[in-house]
Amino acid sequence: MNSKFTKPYNPTENESVIYELWEQSGYFNPDNLPNVTEGPFTIIMPPPNANGQIHAGHALFVTLEDIMIRYKRMRGFKTLWLPGTDHAGFETQVVYEKKLEKEGRSRFNLSREELYAEIMDFVQANKKATENGMRQLGASCDWSREKFTLDPDIIQTVYATFKQMSDDGLVYRGERITNWCTKHQTSLSDLETLSETRKDKLYYMQYGPLVVATVRPETMFGDVAVAVNPDDERYRQYIGQDILAQTPIGELKLKVIADEAVEKDFGTGALKITPAHDANDFEIGLRHNLPSVEVIDRYGKLNEKAGKYAGLKIEAAREAVVRDLTELGLLLKTEDYEHDVSVCYKCGRVIEPRIIPQWFVKMKNLAEQAVKAVKNKKIQIIPNHQEKVFCHWLDNIRDWNISRQIAWGIPIPAKLCEKCDYAVVDIENQKTDCPKCGGRLIKDPDTFDTWFSSGQWPYATLGYPTGEDYRNFYPTDVMETAGDILFFWVARMVMFGLYRTGQVPFQTVYLHGLVRDAKNQKMSKSKGNVIDPAVIARKYGTDALRMALVTGNAAGTDMALSEDRIKGYKHFANKIWNITRFILENSQGQNSPVDLVPADEKLLAEFRALTADITTDMENFRFHLASEKIYQYTWHTLADVILEESKPLIFGNNESNRLSRLLTLNIILLDLLKLLHPFMPFLTETIWQSLPQTKEKMLLTARWPE
Ligand SMILES: [Zn+2]
């Protein structure tokens, strides 16, 4: 017997050797696979952000996708798992800005080019670490096809989409109200803001003959109207009239307008309207053709239109205005007021709505097509209840702001006229004069929202429209990703995929939940409860970590990961090791064909039934059940019962019983290793490579048992 089995299983000694063996075989690449009997099976890996280390969430997605890929590979599919990394625009720039802050530097002291170059170096270093982290987790992806979101061919595809959308009238440049972060100095999409409940004051101010209630008296210098509900009897006489309102810096002329959006029972039923600094007011302004007057600048300070308050930050300005209104007798009363405000999802600062020219994507039609694809079962989402969530969100979608005022990203291929601000798409970078006024064109300084490029990932990575891979592997089969990016990413991929290729980008969406700590708390550095996959894998073995991540963890639910659980699966790995040793030791190369006795026929029949059951679970994405069943069988049936009952047979005098049992155990062992391989690839391949004789050289490409 192989002397390897005399010591306990040592994962660290074996894992890198085994990974090297697989990688050298070339079988991660579908073009090299032997014995392909089925069609393609493709997963495009959600590209990890190239701005940090591998964490437990990465370990979970790598494990799940690797399970799917290994299983299908063993069933004879031409499996492609295409890896990549994401430049992750705003996310990465925020990480890098924090790093700069720690070093006492600021991005605002760097030119765009300098900042871009620095972040590129940072990202390249991280990319390597990320790739190695995935190798350590056992990812059997095709590294020869690896992609980065800033690869020139990816950028070309992204540009072609932008051009086509512009030609089709689906993108436009517009002055619309946007979510502005005064810290990060960029606009953000609706998805990049969070809603937070805050306690503020509601101020009742005398506004000419009317009384308005507002939480933001400091924006009064940008007010252009007072709005009331058309059915509100109290104000009917004022509708259509101009009123003069006294302010601490002089009089304001305001138009009184009637709009359905005004609630009669909020405050006094009369609203001050500031189109430049409030999203709802902006909409009302559009409906009534009102001008907008900007009084707050990009840094969140009042500008010269606010007279003596110019230069004050919003909070300070509010205090000063309230004090002065009180002195003038214009503040009638103050109430406590609880309301929801939008904040930047990265820094938590209150979003300051601003009107700036931005590129937008018209979403209505794209969203309708995506909803149709889900309703017509062209795409299945697991867990199923997410389909409703998906459709509801798309039914209520607004146009998508895709311009970002940050350096780290794909530049928007457009030019703007210096004179008239007219915008033209210019992929080839050749246009110099404004087609409208003849003025000089300058480069649009903005970059794309990172999801505008990652949303095109499935077909861009496969070389749409002419690439061979695109012809062979698109539409892909499964998109496995975190449930919290269903809208950010999955929905956009579906919309882009349908728009550009006319086909869904994937047939099944598998969403996983969050990995939490043993007490079900979110993992965070500050709490010190982070489980680092690399450290844990060195301690207990990658396979133990993989089993702990998958077993009992159904799609869409958050899971609690404890070190104890991982340790438990290390014991399990050793159990299998010992089972193998027992069978090998007693077989002594004995696996000649003999007639099985009825008792062994029965054992095998039971094992075949289990195999069929597990195969059904694998086909239906119930990996959490499949691994549990293998675990239970291995430990509590095979080890505890069958091996114990086998001892008298193996050491007894009845030769036909002895040989029959040994053959049965050998058959079960080989198939068990196969069933376990997707979950515990390192251990099972290590054993496979140490078996005296196997028809299939590598477990990686062995046939799944029938
Ligand atoms: Zn921010």
What does this structure look like?
With 706 residues, this protein is α/β, with parallel strands linked by helices. Among the domains are: 36-161 and 451-512, 3-Layer(aba) Sandwich (Rossmann fold), CATH 3.40.50.620; 186-344, Isoleucyl-tRNA Synthetase, domain 2 (Alpha-Beta Complex), CATH 3.90.740; 562-701, Isoleucyl-tRNA Synthetase, Domain 1 (Orthogonal Bundle), CATH 1.10.730.10. The chain contains 20 helices and 25 strands. A four-stranded antiparallel sheet has the order 6-5-14-16. Bound molecules: zinc ion.
Can I get a quick summary?
The protein is an alpha/beta fold and 706 residues long. Among the domains are: 36-161 and 451-512, HUPs (Rossmann fold, 3-Layer(aba) Sandwich), CATH 3.40.50; 186-344, Valyl/Leucyl/Isoleucyl-tRNA synthetase, editing domain (Isoleucyl-tRNA Synthetase, domain 2, Alpha-Beta Complex), CATH 3.90.740; 562-701, Isoleucyl-tRNA Synthetase, Domain 1 (Orthogonal Bundle).
